[in-house]
Specification:
The protein is an alpha+beta fold. The protein folds into 2 domains: about 1-70 and about 185-350, Bira Bifunctional Protein, Domain 2 (BirA Bifunctional Protein, domain 2), CATH 3.30.930.10; about 375-465, Anticodon-binding domain (Rossmann fold). The protein has helices at about 1-20, 40-60, 75-80, 85, 110-115, 185-190, 190-195, 240-260, 305-315, 340-355, 390-405, 415-425, 435-440, 460-465, and strands at about 25, 35-40, 65-70, 90-95, 100-105, 120, 130-135, 155-160, 165, 175, 205-210, 225-235, 265-270, 285-290, 295-305, 320-325, 330, 335-340, 355-360, 360-365, 380, 410, 430-435, 445-450, 455-460. It binds adenosine-5'-triphosphate (ATP).
């Protein structure tokens, strides 16, 4: 029963996203393309607002962070050095009957297999507990095809990087990949950063950008997509100081989630056990969220040691050491990596904000978004669309507010009830209506999204009153 309710919630969110212009299935008019999604106006605004909160809290509000924006396609040697070219794989199984493909570790009791070090070995490239290479002939037991119950074939490694060729000749030398994570662009530019900015340890590089993974089974709406966005920080520290920075980012991550409206009760920390981590990672915490389809990874925090910089130094031949002026020593810094998926955050935010209640005897749906991430902050309406004086006055107020508040919308479509419903569904915290009294005394009604309560406010006090 509870499960149905939750599945129902996901369906409702997907429907609202389409109906109100947040998110659409990718390539929909041609039948879609699994694992790709397009953001419409309000979705793009929501996503951008989440990113701005991240920039503000993790980067611009600190003195030790620098922005970065690397190319998506890099020399294939980057991915050889990082280990992705060989090992960024998921175990794929195919049903012999219906031919559907699944990620082996997502069906049956795979978590048990992961703990069996005889059968699996961790990926060299990333701290992911469920990305494993099946070692030797270790055959994994599974309970049959989740769809038709048919026999599943043996698991084989499937590299999840999208391949491409750079230039006109499609040979091995021209081979490259769409990046599966933003991180490597920052590691590969460590020397450029040191030489141009001369930062002192500890310091971080921060980047938001697209990442691509040819997921075997994309699913759960935005949760597991083939094209998605990441917000990643590579924070370089002295080896002896990693724990302090790790704890700081752990706390900052929790504050960040709270400021996006995620209840601390729905966020859980999973300390990834030693035998499920990649060999270079000394510690990893997965932050999991109670999505409508279950508790799943929202973001990760990993202590990546000096693995990546050392690998790039060794493979490129370029020294990637840091000269510590205090101790006059040279060493390769260690790295703490907080890594967030923007789309998983959008889905977590929507799941938290989606609310149904009753207002004036009618059922209504609204998004209880924190005002700072709401796509539209204030909506302005004339009570009636066919009264030019009201429309003119409402436009005047709209223009006045637009100068002060970043996202204001003018709306005169349909009747006032419909406009409130639409603004509630896109999560607009405040709606202002100009009525006939406005023409007399220059006051308007200000309606609060959550309570539906209205009060009259003088137009000159509006900005102060709204105070978002
Ligand atoms: P999962 O185990 O769910 O596949 P992961 O451990 O592989 O995730 P990481 O490699 O740690 O994920 O990537 C960092 C972040 O990028 C994740 O915490 C998640 O927010 C996001 N992310 C990873 N894969 C996807 C995907 N396919 N679709 C959307 N977001 C993703």
């Amino acid at each position: 029963m509870e499960k149905n309710k939750q599945t129902d919630l996901l369906e409702k969110i997907v429907a609202l996203c389409k109906r109100r212009g947040f998110v659409f299935p990718g390539s929909e008019i041609y039948g879609g393309l699994s694992g790709f999604w397009d953001y419409g106006h309000y979705g793009a605004l929501l996503k951008e607002n989440i990113k701005q909160v991240w920039w503000g809290q993790f980067v611009d509000g600190r003195e030790d962070m620098f922005r970065f924006d690397a190319a998506i396609v890099m020399n294939q040697k980057v991915w050889q050095a990082s280990g992705h070219a060989k090992g960024f794989a998921d175990p794929l199984v195919e049903c012999e009957k219906c031919k559907k493909q699944f990620r082996e570790d997502q069906i049956g009791n795979s978590r048990l297999n992961l703990k069996d070090s005889e059968k699996v070995q961790p990926l060299p490239a990333r701290t992911q507990p469920d990305k494993v290479i099946l070692a030797g002939t270790g055959i994994v037991q599974s309970s049959g095809c989740p769809d038709c119950g048919g026999r599943l074939g043996e698991a084989r490694q499937f590299n999840m990087m999208f391949r491409t060729h750079v230039g006109a000749i499609e040979d091995d030398f021209a081979l490259s990949y769409l990046r599966p994570e933003t991180a490597q662009g920052m590691f590969a530019n460590f020397k450029n950063t040191i030489d141009s900015l001369h930062p002192k340890l500890p310091f971080g590089l921060a980047q938001i950008g697209k990442a691509f993974r040819n997921e075997i089974a994309p699913r759960d709406f935005l949760f597991r997509a083939r094209e998605f966005e990441q917000m990643e920080i590579e924070y370089f520290v002295r080896p002896s100081e990693w724990e302090k920075s790790f704890e700081e980012f752990r706390e900052q991550t929790k504050r960040f989630f709270t400021s996006l409206g995620l209840s601390p009760k729905s966020v859980h920390e999973l300390e990834v056990p030693d035998n499920e981590r990649a060999h270079y990672s000394k510690r990893t915490i997965d932050f999991e969220f109670d999505y409508p389809f279950g508790r799943k990874e929202l973001s990760g925090l990993a202590y990546r040691t000096d693995f990546d910089l050392s690998a790039h130094q060794e493979n490129s031949g370029v020294p990637l050491e840091y000269l510590d002026e205090e101790s006059k020593t040279k060493f390769i810094p260690h790295v703490i990596e907080p890594s967030f998926g923007v789309d998983r955050l959008v889905l977590a935010v929507l799941s938290s904000a989606y609310t149904e209640d009753e207002m004036g005897g009618d059922k209504r749906t609204f998004l209880k978004l924190p005002p700072k991430i709401a796509p539209v902050k204030v909506a302005v309406f004339p009570l009636l669309k066919n009264k030019p004086k009201l429309v003119e006055k409402a436009r005047e107020i709209y223009k006045m507010l637009k100068k002060e508040i970043d996202s204001v919308e003018f709306d005169d479509n349909g009747n006032i009830g419909k406009r409130y419903r639409r603004q509630d569904e896109i999560g607009t915290p405040v709606a202002i209506t100009c009525d006939f009294q406005t023409l007399d005394d220059n006051t308007v009604t200000v309606r609060d999204r959550d309570s539906g309560k209205q009060e009259r406010v003088r137009t000159e006090d509006l900005v102060k009153k709204i105070n978002l």
